[in-house]
Structures are given as structure tokens and as C-alpha cells.
Amino acid sequence: MRVHGPMDFGQIGILSSLTGPLAEAGICILAISTYNTDYLLVKEEMLQKAINVLEKAGHRVTASA
């Protein structure tokens, strides 16, 4: 999953707000941060659960090709 970016370096806690709920739900991730945005790698079989968890936590998840 890709976090919509680019983000200002002054924004604090974005990655934490995403990874916290996933960790609480027992979903393992690999986070990759770049200059413009962050990526969360999730096992394919956990993707739908991860989407559900993030939406329940108040995040908007959209599909892109």
C-alpha cells in the first residue's frame, strides 16, 4: 500500500497512525519510507484484513492501478 504523498516533513505520526492499528490486529508489515511518501508491504492474504483495519481506524483506502 502507498501512503498518499508527498508529505511535509513537519507532519508527525502518520506512519505510526497506520502501523499501530495493524500491529494491534496482528498484521505484520514492512514499512518503506522514501522522500515523497511511505509504503506498507502486507502479505497478500492479509491485504483485505489490513484494509478493513485501516478503514476502521479512520483512514481512507483507495485502489489504484
Strands side by side in the biggest sheet? 1-2
Q: How many angstroms does the end-to-end distance come to?
A: 11 Å
**Domain unit count:** 1
Number of strands: 2
What structural class do helix, strand and pairing data support? alpha+beta
Largest sheet: 2 strands, antiparallel
Secondary-structure element series: HEEH
Radius of gyration: 11 Å
Shape, please? Answer: globular
Helical residues, percent: 25-40%
The assembly state of the depicted protein chains is single chain
CATH superfamily: VC0802-like
What is the tally of helical segments? 2
CATH topology: VC0802-like
CATH architecture designation = 2-Layer Sandwich
Could you please describe the fold and organization of this structure?
The chain is of the alpha+beta class and 65 residues long. The protein has a single domain, classed as VC0802-like (2-Layer Sandwich). It has two helices and two strands; from the N terminus they run H-E-E-H. The protein has a two-stranded antiparallel sheet. Strand 1 (29-33) and strand 2 (38-42) form a beta hairpin.
